[in-house]
Design goal:
alpha/beta, 8 strands, 13 helices, eight-stranded mixed β-sheet
Length: 303
């Protein structure tokens, strides 16, 4: 198939390479032209340097895959493309968009007969080698039309039609909420090991490796953690500042809206918030209260 990849970041670049290596024709576009040039030179993509040029280099029905940060930048591109595309053309949003944004965007594009597919994509920087797990929402007939692309991008049995518009990103949202909880559990477990009386004899790379050999807590995340410990045994080269890209918040909000108890997801999200602060006011309040009611000692602030 012939497709355009718009956005050549960590995910988009490798997805474009996998499609090209799988025999598809690809028009590459990125806001900064250097990445487009790289894909043209190294992988044989067709380069485009404006959205109008992207559209001109595709044949009807055109297929355009957006790999852009969630939010207004996606809306900006869809607004621009709506004026360039024709009825029957297809836009795929493969970023981590909020599923309610999918519903709104699909309605806007429907006015012009343009099809919209939401694709939740997981696989990170390893997807080029092992493939991407993908969760798709939209019209079933459009999914069927695009299936050759999904087969190339995914490992065996690695993609799924999830239902109507928004369902793909909804499933990916919950996937990432689960990921938050798994990561937090690993972090707390190794923190307990580090604080133990046996810590000086622990080799965390070997422990992670061991747990991935038949243990009930084995996972790809733990394999990645093993690699991280191999490079930095006590993770001293990084700071424990953890961002979140929105999916954990959306998952928790969905749980609230539907009265589903999700304490692990909530705690994991709040732990990320906590990682970004030092000497918080709330913790100073706790210390002051312990001093006031129990006469407990407090540490004085550095001047």
């Amino acid at each position: 198939m012939k497709i355009a990849m718009i956005g050549l970041g960590r995910m988009g670049m490798n997805m474009a390479k996998r499609l090209l290596r799988g025999g598809h024709e690809l028009v590459a576009y990125n806001r900064t032209p250097e990445k487009t040039d790289t894909l043209v030179k190294e992988e044989g993509a067709m380069g485009a340097y404006s959205l109008a040029e992207v559209v001109d280099k595709l044949e009807k029905p055109r297929v355009l895959w957006l790999m852009l940060p969630a939010g207004s930048i996606v809306d900006d591109h869809i607004r621009a493309l709506k004026g360039l595309l024709d009825s029957g053309d297809i836009i795929i949003d493969g970023g981590n968009s909020y599923y309610k944004d999918d519903e709104r965007r699909a309605d806007i594009l429907k006015e012009s007969g343009i099809k919209y597919v939401d694709a939740g994509v997981s696989g990170g920087i390893w997807g080029l080698k092992i493939g991407y797990c993908m969760m798709m929402g939209g019209e079933r007939s459009v999914f069927n039309q695009l299936e050759p692309l999904f087969k190339t991008l995914a490992p065996e049995n690695g993609y799924l039609y999830c239902g109507g518009t928004g369902s793909g990103h909804f499933v990916k949202m919950v996937h990432n909420g689960i990921e938050y909880g798994l990561m937090q559990a690993y972090g707390e477990g190794f923190d307990i090991l580090e604080a133990s009386p046996f810590a000086e004899n622990f080799d965390y790379q070997k422990i992670a490796h061991l747990w991935n050999r038949g243990s009930v807590v084995r996972s790809w995340l733990l394999e990645l953690l093993e690699d991280a410990f191999a490079r930095d045994p006590h993770l001293q080269e990084i700071k424990g500042y953890v961002e979140d890209s929105g999916e954990g918040r959306w998952t928790l909000q969905q749980a609230i809206d539907t009265d589903v108890p999700a304490p692990v997801t909530a705690m994991a999200l709040f732990a990320r918030f906590r990682s970004r602060k030092e000497n918080t006011f709330s913790e100073r309040v706790l210390a002051a209260l312990r001093r006031e009611f129990g006469g407990h000692a407090v540490k004085t602030a550095d001047k």
